[in-house]
User: What shape does this take?
Amino acid sequence: MREIARASEARQQALLERLALQTRALDEAQAELGALRRVAAEVRAARSEHAIALELLGEKQEELEATQEELDALKLSG
Assistant: This one.
């Protein structure tokens, strides 16, 4: 009977150690997931800012072309 009890205790101890290892692994994975979510949010914000910058650049390019056309027209009429 004592051997069965010792074996049972050893098995229980091994299971507790395994549970502790898996709990640590889960905690680490959750921390990494949090970091990845923060990076994903930063990437989304950067993409949004990039799109806005491209839009503004396009508007400035259109203004430049219009000004250049006006300048060319003035040169031809003058």
About this structure: The radius of gyration is 34 Å.
